[in-house]
Amino acid sequence: MQTVLIADDHQIVRRGIRMIIESFSAKFQIIEAESCASVAQILSGKKIDYAILDMVLTDGNLLSIMQKIEACSAHTNILVYSMSEERIYARRLIEKGVRGFLCKQTSIEELEKAIRCIFKGEIYVSSDLLGNLIHNSGPATKNPIDSLSDRELQVVEHVVLGMGVKEIGERMGLDITTIGTYRKRAFEKMEVQNTIELKEKFLLYKA
Fold it and tell me: pLDDT tens digit string along 61-108?
């Protein structure tokens, strides 16, 4: 029997995904989780064939356990879904071994299609993202957001939302000095001088 991990911080969402999977076949053993810590523990202690993971869980962002996810991606087909921008995260995660990225705003039919893809061992990419990747495949279309590390990207997203260094540190479980370093590096890579410029450029390039 194959094992599927469903991770979301809302029980009703986990239940909905479970029902979709069970409609495919009864052959799956389904495990549920609601935090990054639980996901990391489950991936470390048990063979998981497929994982369907929300990007943001109760204790943080999946990027905080990305090393664990990368280590498991060789034997676990992983689909990530999120409210976060597809154009920012999809390529980044697929390069790390994730088999697909899906926006939460999508239809049930598209979710079913994405799950079927990873169950077949295929890579799921939405038609919108595929068109964008083809359009921006040339060297002259470099997106500065792509130069950010995972941690820097997390910090930038929090800054854009208006959070201060202390609040970001509490959210990410890091000290103020570390957050300040990530923010400084992000400013340099994005080639901006202040928070206003950072927000404007980030919103421009994620659109």
Answer: 888 888 888 888 889 999 999 887 777 788 888 888 899 999 888 899
Domain span at 62: 2-135
From CA 170, how far away is CA 151, in angstroms rounded?
14
pLDDT per residue over 148-186, tens digit each? 999 999 999 999 999 999 999 998 989 999 999 999 999
Residue indicated by tokens 């899906």: 102
pLDDT of 137 over the 80 cut: no
Q: Which of these three, 75, 102, 135, is where a domain ends?
A: 135
110 and 170, same structural domain? no
Please tell me whether residues 112 and 190 are part of one structural domain: no
Cα distance between residue 101 and residue 99, in whole Å: 7
- Judge if 167 and 195 occupy the same domain: yes
Distance, CA of 171 to CA of 61 (rounded, Å) = 9
Nearest residue to 164 via CA among 180, 178, 149, 150: 180
CATH label of the domain that carries residue 172: 1.10.10.10
State the Cα angle at 51 between 46 and 55, rounded to 5°.
Answer: 120
Q: Are residues 98 and 169 in the same domain?
A: no
Q: Which amino acid belongs to residue 153?
A: L
Dist CA 132 CA 169 (whole Å): 33
What are the structure tokens assigned to 64, written together? 């905080």
